[in-house]
Amino acid sequence: MSLDRSRISRRDAIRLLGTSALVAPVALRAGRRDVAAAAGWCYRDPIFSLDGKVGHIYVAVELGNEVYSKSQIEVVILHPRDAVTEMIWVDPIGFGHGIAASFKADARLVKSSAGCPIEVRVKVPMTDPMIPVLVLYAPAPGHRVTSQALGRANSWVVLSGVVVS
Questions:
Q1: b vs e for 85-101, b when ≥16 Cβ sit within 10 Å of the residue's Cβ?
Q2: What strands, in cross-sheet order, belong to the sheet with 99-105?
Q3: pLDDT digits (tens, 9 = 90+) for 17-42
């Protein structure tokens, strides 16, 4: 039996779903501090502004797995073409290698009276591609988490459906 690391096994899928099931209720109910204490995640985060409204992205791996980082975390924030963007703060440490955060205009995303929709794409390069990666969005530092996505190291984790308002 050969191991194909590009495909997720049933056991790995169950592990990811189980982790998500444990973290999701806490993440949606509480802020970052409670999630970190309850689930044992190590966080790195960029803070940005879109049309003057602040957003906070948390990139997390289970506590202890940050040592498997092999290069910069990549964070790409897709936004409407006519949005004014500003990166307020980017974690210079980012699991030991920093974070390369950037903006990219996307014609699919259009502002509305509800705010600016965004899509967040995150890649965390690790020596073990099976390490779970959790991406969370909060309207501002210290606020409740409103969206999340769970994926794996070395793959793009996409968080969509977020509206910055």
A1: beeeebbeebbebbbeb
A2: 99-105, 73-79, 116-123, 157-164
A3: 444 444 444 344 334 333 433 457 88
Can you give the pTM of this predicted structure? 0.75
Concatenating the DSSP letter of every residue in the chain gives ----TTS--HHHHHHHHHHHHHHHHHHHHS-HHHHHHHH-EEEE-EEEEETTEEEEEEEEEETTGGGGB-SPEEEEEEE-TT--EEEEEE-S-TTTT-EEEEEEE-TT---BTTBEEEEEEEE--BSSTTSEEEEEEESSTTSPP-EEEEEETTS-EEEEEEEE-
The boundaries of the domain holding residue 36 are 10-164
Residue 160 inside a domain? The answer is: yes
For the chain, give the mean pLDDT.
81
Establish if 110 belongs to a structural domain.
yes
Residue 54 lies in a domain: yes
Q: Provide the domain count of the chain.
A: 1
Task: With respect to residue 4, please indicate whether it lies within any of the assigned structural domains.
Answer: no
CA distance linking residue 87 with residue 82, whole number of Å: 16
